[in-house]
Structure formats: C-alpha cells, structure tokens
Structures
1.
Amino acid sequence: MPISNASPEDVIALLDTQTYFELLKIPYPTNRDAVLERLSKQQLIKQTAQGWTITNLAAILLAKKLDAFSPALARKAPRVIIYEGNNKLQTRDEKTGNRGYAVGFDRLVDFVHSAAPQNRFIEEVLREEVKMFPAQALRELIANALVHQDFLATGTSVMIEMYRDRIEISNPGIPPIKVERFIDENRSRNEQLADTMRRFGICEEKGSGIDKVVSAAEYFQLPAPDFRVGETRTTAVLFAHQDFTDMSKADRTRACYQHCCLLYVNNKRMSNQTLRERFRLGESQAATVSLIIGAAKEAGLIKTDESESTSTRYARYLPFWA
C-alpha cells in the first residue's frame, strides 16, 4: 500500500532522492520544495490536504529501505543465491536486496557480476581478465526480470541463482508474448515501471534488451541463452563458456535460431558463413553447420530467404516469423 499523510521530511527520509537526480543526470535542487515538486511532476508522490502520498511506484524504485514501507513490498526485493557447484546442494553466498529497484540496481548488478567465475576462453583470446557472464547481459536480464514480473503474485520475487556452469534469472509471471519472439517484440506488463526505468537509463528502449543479451553471448563465445516458461515463473538462463563439441543438438539449434533473429532485426541475413563465425568454426566445418541449419529448419524455427540464391552454399535464412 502507498504511504499517505507523509511530511516533506518523511518523503526525503524514505526515498533516495539524491540517487534519483543522479540517475536522471540533473543537478540536485538547492531546496527541498524543488525536490518534492520534481517528484510530484513525475507522479511519484501526490499532495493531499493531509500531506504527501508516496506511490507504490516511488517506493519500489526509490526506497532507501523497502521494509520501511511494508512487509509485502520487502518481499518484492530481488534475491541472489550463489551455489558452489552445478546444483542447489551447497550455497556459497546469499543476499536479499532492500533498496528500491532503481537506486539499488547498479550495486545489484556489480555484486552478481563480481561473483561470476572467469571466462578462461575469452581471457586467452583478449589477453585480459573477463568474467564468465558479461555485465551487459546480466544488466539487461536483471532489468527485464524486475520490469516484467507479475506484482500480483504474492510472497515471491525476482530470483538470481548462479551455478558454476550457468546463471538463472527468474521472475514471477508468464510473459504476454512467446519466448521465440523475445528478440524482436516487447510488451511490458508494467508500463509505468518500464517507462521510468528507461528514463533512468536502466532499461533499454522497447525490444532492444534481449538482442543485446544474445549479441553478448555470441561475442563472449557462450552457448545461446535459454528462455523458459514454467507454470508461474519465467526464467532466462545464461550459460558458461562451452566448446562447440560439447554443445548438445538443442543448444546448437537454439544458437542458430537466435543468430538468425539477431541478424534479421539488424537488417542482415544469416548464412552458413555467418553461423560458422558465430561458433568460431573454419570453412572445413561448413557441412556440420549445414546440419544445424537443417535441424533449425526442420524444427520450424527458420526458413530459406526465397529472394536470395537458393543454392545451399549461398543460401540466406530468415526467422520463421519474418
């Protein structure tokens, strides 16, 4: 529930107004009234005869401490659990946030990113220390989970679970669009929340978040991310580096489809050559890559671009929905 009849002092004490202005990249006002006026203009607080009402939106985004508002709001804080191995048997670290999503976001992403193992493969290639899960991909997936969660699902929150071989970021609720369309479509469940997070520079403009995740996975030579919908939750899985030879048929097919989508939304087309480059394979493995393309076509995920050459060697491909 929103807090009502709050004094100006209460508003400043409960909300991290300093970080709010920093996120908007505007100077902090010289007096308190100007701070309140700005928040009021953005409909984060509302003035009544009895004082100020702090909206739920202001609380979830800007709270210095979520539990200062209500236990229900505190339960919406994201939880991070870091496991020792590839299963839940041994927990290495666990953390539940208590700050508002916007004011606590960078700290949350930094904590998750720094806990990730090293990506030895990329380290050797780039000659620099690189974490297994790219910060950009974590940023997008965590922001997505916060923005697209179902707030009506009680007693459940965004979960970030890191294993040795993957990280799973999940949120309560079923997405309004099919997972196959995550790269090219966007429909927000919480439009006002998404819009404010965009203004803070935390969320991408509509629809460009997931393609950044797929792009980062390709650049850092990670298997294609997996998006899974359960009965009550949506989960994005980012995998640790894996050699091509260790990838399953499903992994390869998913990578092929996502690569095809990524190129399509950037007005390009997938070919045997682009997919070989995605997997860092030489020309001698063109036949192997043709098999992956064949499997993706058979699964109904991609189709041949009829406007281009139809010879297998020069064929171009489109996502099934194009």
2.
Amino acid sequence: MRVAVKPELLQWACTRAGVAPDEMTHRFPQLPAWVSGEVMPTLRQVEDFANATHASVGFFFLPQPPVEQIPIPDYRTIDGGPMRHPSPNLLDTIYICQQRQEWYRDFARSAGDAPLPFIGTADLTSPVETTAARIRTTLGFDLDERRMLPTWTEALRRFVVQADEAGVLVMVSGVVGGNAHRTLDPDEFRGFALSDGYAPLVFINGSDTKSAQMFTLAHEIAHLWLGETALSDVVPTAIPVNRIESWCNRIAAEVLVPLDVLRREYRADADLREETKRLAKRFKVSTLVILRRIYDAGGLTQDEFWQAYRAELAFLRAIPKSTGGDFYRMQLTRVGKRFASALVISTLEGRTSFTESFRMLGLKKMATFRELSQSLGVI
C-alpha cells in the first residue's frame, strides 16, 4: 500500500533529526524519488523513515510541517537570544520525564503522601545565603562529609541520593530513554526541572562531565525551591539575562561553595592553578566553579578571571570522558531510585502492568526486570 506524503514533510523530518536528506539515502535509496514526487512510499517505508528520524508517523500525513514547541519554559539563551530549534532527543526526553512524573504523582497521592514542604517556598527576593543554607539543611548536604569523599563521581552520587531521599525524582542520563544510539548533547541543554508538590523531578544530562552535573543538579534544585518548571543551559560562569536563571545560578554556587567558607580557605599567595585544583577537590566541584567563586570573593580581577577560565576550559575539554559501568547502577541512575522502586513495587502488586512498567523503565526483558528489582532490594 503506497501513501501520499508531501515532500516538505520528508525534508522537515530530516532537518528535525539534524541530518541532510542526502545522508538518509544510504538507508532509503528511493528518498530522492519520494521528495521529487516521482514515487510514493509504502506505509511500511513511511513507518521506517519515521523511526529513523525519531518522528511520529502521524506527522507525515499533515498538510504542512508542524511547529513543535518545547512543552516547558525554555531559559536557554546565547547573548540574550533564543536557542535553535529543539532536537527530537530533547523533546522525547522531556516527554518521557513528564510521563514518569505523572505516574509518580498518582502513585504518591494514592499512597497518602503529603506534598513536599519546600517546593515553592522561595522567590527572587529570598536572600541567596539563607536560601542556600536551607537547601543544604533539607538535603543533609554536609560540606565536611563531601571533603572526605574520594572522587567527583562519589560526590555526585551522594548528592543525587540526598535529593532522592528528600523526595526529588532525580534522573541522570546521557541517552534518550535506554537507547544508546540517541546520545544527548550537553551543548543543547544540561538539565531541566519539572516542579510539582508530590513529584518534583530533575533531569541531568549525563553526557556532561561529573563536576558539571553537580552544578546543574544544584541549579535545578533551586528551580524547585522557586516552584518553577524550566529547561536550562547553565554554566557557573554565566550571568544569565533571565532573572530566574541568574538567581538559580547564584543559589547553586552558594550551595556548593559557600562564599564565607571559600574566603576562609582560599590562599591568595599560592599558585592559582594549584590552588584551584586543591579547592575543587575540597568542595568536589569543577575548577571552573572554584574560579568563579574566587572571583566572587574578590580574589581575581575580571581580566584575571577570564584568562584563567579560558585556560582551564581548554584543559578540561582535552580530557577524555569515561564510559561504561555497572548496568543496573546505570539504569537506576537513569530513572532514579525513588521512581524505580515505586514502579517495581506497583508492578509486582498488580497495580501497574508490566508493559507500562517496561516502557517507563526502558527495559525489554523480564530477566532484566527481576535483576533490577533485586538490586533495589524489592525481591
């Protein structure tokens, strides 16, 4: 069965997926003929093409290409201007997280859980130092404990656990769902927050560095304190035009590296590079965060800060990223322990179907589900 598809929809799908039509011809040799209108594709070919471009099949039967909007407030900016069109990977990640949040909200309400008391308790006039201290207290974020952790990975893992135990659904992944072929780009976005009294959710782009993820998590938690849902592209050195992003950046920096502590520990007479590395290890944050906080404390002029920042950024970009790890630990990181535990329990009790559970967990096999359940201590 052949179907009529407008050429502009085929071209739109390629552009949306970030590939040129010529790049798709090796997989779909008849694509030029479809675009020219010489040949109509079969329904199966349209389905395969939709799958290859990560687009819904229904899009190809519209009268014109749709204009897709990011379904949450988008605070990503470059010099005050809007970012480029969202990729399918970003959109699908937001949709997946919204589905998980909706499920967990219903689960929490049916269990009789009360709304979390800290969501939306701050506003843009709230003092940065006071609000950051409240966040650390709520999460049990202890600076001396972090000093003793051996690596950034352990520090990030501890931060995620603390947020999870406070009631925040934290999901860290570098791919869409469980699809290793759909890698998320940290240059497009670093994280987002979906505020909700029962099911606040923070997503962190796991393709970013561990130390950068630390700052993103703190930034998105600040959004929850405001009760704000938002997509962000945050770096510690930025001074965003948007007031909300600017406030959240200041809160994140103060949560991770309190300025009064930094001032006490900073040795102005030491070599800047070595001192930056020492303080980064002490606070378990990136050296870029430390450079910014030294500048905030008055230890560097603006010119000195930017010179050191550019040199450090070039050094960090040259470091290869690590890959791999325990599958079940990675899976729990991707969906979050709180969410995974609730979904597994609900499934085993018969309240959620295995089909829905597998879809939201990104699993395909019953054996994998059992192993994940065991790693959670559920069975």
3.
Amino acid sequence: MTEAASPYTRPRPRWRALPAEDPSLATVNEARLQLHWAAQLPSAASRALLPKRDDESHTNLGWLPGLGGLVTRALTRHAGSRVALDVGEFSLRVLGPESATLARLELDGQTLASALAWLRDALAGETRRAVPALALADYDMPAAPPQTGAPLARPSDQHLSILRDLYANSHAVLTEISRRRAGASPVRCWPHHFDIATLISLDGGDPERARSIGVGMSPGDTSYDAPYFYVSPWPYPKADAELPELFAGDWHREGFTAAVLRYRSIVSDPEPGAQPVRVRDFLSAAIAAAEDLLT
C-alpha cells in the first residue's frame, strides 16, 4: 500500500510580494470598503440557501486560489452551485462543477439591490430551481456609500491587486497552521468583519467559555487603517495581566486582546523573501505566547 502524502510536505504556495507603504496605500481603505460590502452578496446567497447555523458559519466564505476570490460553500439546495466574489476583477460569479463560471456580473455601477436581484435570477436560471428573496445581514457594517443605495465603484487595479494578494498570502500561511495544529478550524473569511482566520480550539464545550486562539488577518478596521495579522487568546487576559514579550509586533488591548503585526512591519524589510518569513515567525511566536497566557 502506498502511504498517503503528508500534508506537512506539500509545497508552499508562492508568496505574492506586497508593496511597501506609500501614499497610495491610504486609499486601499476605500477599496477595502467596496469589497467588504460586495462580500455581503455571496453571503446573502448562503443565508438564503444553506441550513442556518447558530454561529452564522454557514455564511462565511472560503478562498478559491484558482479564481483569486472569496466563495460560498456549495449551495446544496441548488445543485451544489457556489457564488464567488472575484477580488481582482471586482465581479460576482455563479460557479458550477469544477468552479466553471456559469454567470458573471461586473459590480461597478451596480447597487447592492440590483446585484442581489441579478444573483437571484442567475441562480434560478442556472439551477432551474426557485430561489427565495436574497437579503443582506442586519449586523453593523462600516459606513460606505453602497450602504445608502449608491452604486458600487470598482477600485483601481493596483488596489484590487494588493487586496487579492493579501488574501491569497493570508490563506496560504493560515492554511499551513490549520493543517498542522490539532483543533484548528478550516480557514474562512467572516463577512461581518471581513477578516480571514482559523480558530485553534484548546477545549471542547461551550465556545464562549472554552479556551481558543484566533489566528487571522484583517484588511483593516476601526482599530487599524491598514491590514494586519493577529493572534488572539480567548478568554481575554484580565486588564491588569502582564503580557509576554513578543518576537515581533505589539499587543493590542482596546476592545480586544491580540498580538498584532501591522502592514508596515510586514513590508519593512526590503530583502526578497523577507515578508513571508516575518509573518510566519510572528504567528508561530504569538501562538506560543497565547498558549502560555491560557495555560
């Protein structure tokens, strides 16, 4: 019998070099907001067509490397089709078997309402099954023009490329952790906060009480206006707890507790190949620090 290949020996996906911070990076936040709102569209299909889960995990998204986009789970009520947000092209796709594109919509100039209507019709047309009305989630989202009915606006190719590469890189390094660590969940993008992450569960039982470590990347939020990687222990340490020294990055303690590696630290070393090494070293050391805090 031939032994199955170990996941530890799989070749690592190529890291896509991220540009050093410059004035143009500030406007990546505008691109991030457009994509964040656009990501609510495939999640709306999941919300309507997948069995509900209490933790809303049925609405989260995977990363599809071949497409360079975020994709739903198979919509089992609709012939296993999936809906994807193509990050690099800023388009919505309905995917069939082997990820073949069955229908595609350029999102530039579309309102959220018109895109939802198109998606419902496209799913119904391709699967020949009735599709219920699609609606966005009612959780809080960062303010942006699409929220009030303005059309989605396609970001520049440069900014779409940065964000696509950021998610591709993050998916690769987080998948390494997910495969290596016992108790780690698959890597998923959560549409509410738009972060991509894996959760390392240290205990069973009630997730609100059980110890865990969240490991992920946020493209930016109200805490930081640029992308960052994070490692967050749960339950959070007490406010007066002494936190261990980090190999790289800083501790964040306002609103949540996490070791954080900011974008400027990721790209600070101009040496070729330095970026993925810095990220992997940070994540490894920060996970060890989080384990120490929890034990």
